[in-house]
Write a structure and sequence with these properties.
Blueprint: E1 13-16, E2 23-27, E3 32-38, H1 41-50, H2 58-77, E4 78-80, E5 86-88
Antiparallel strand pairs: 1-2, 2-3, 4-5
Pfam family, one: DUF2510
Domain DUF2510: 14-39
Keywords: Membrane, Transmembrane, Transmembrane helix
Length: 97
């Protein structure tokens, strides 16, 4: 591609394509390359960076973890009795002297 004299001072980066209003074109510091991208490239890159699996998102992981801890403590705090009903466990500590 031919070098555009008006852009020769620009650093290598994505810029609005001088030939199209609907795209970005990469300027390599000397000339326009053949690499083009949609105008909303920055938004697409930001969305891609935030795309994490569900198990890595705090809004899901934290409530599930809290519920699991509560269920664990509830299960450990209940001991079945002879009549089949669950009762709080009584802790007996004996001291040997």
């Amino acid at each position: 591609m031919a070098q555009d004299g008006s852009t020769s001072h620009r650093i290598p980066d994505w810029y609005p394509d001088p030939r199209s209003e609907a795209a970005l074109r990469y300027w390599d510091g000397e000339e326009w390359t053949s690499h083009i991208a949609p105008l909303d490239l920055e938004r697409q890159l930001a969305d891609a960076k935030d795309h994490r699996p569900w198990y890595r998102k705090k809004r899901i992981l934290v409530p599930v973890g809290v519920a699991a801890v509560i269920a664990l403590f509830a299960a450990l705090g209940q001991v079945p009795s002879d009549d089949g009903a669950a009762h709080s466990a009584d802790v007996v500590v004996s001291v040997v002297r």
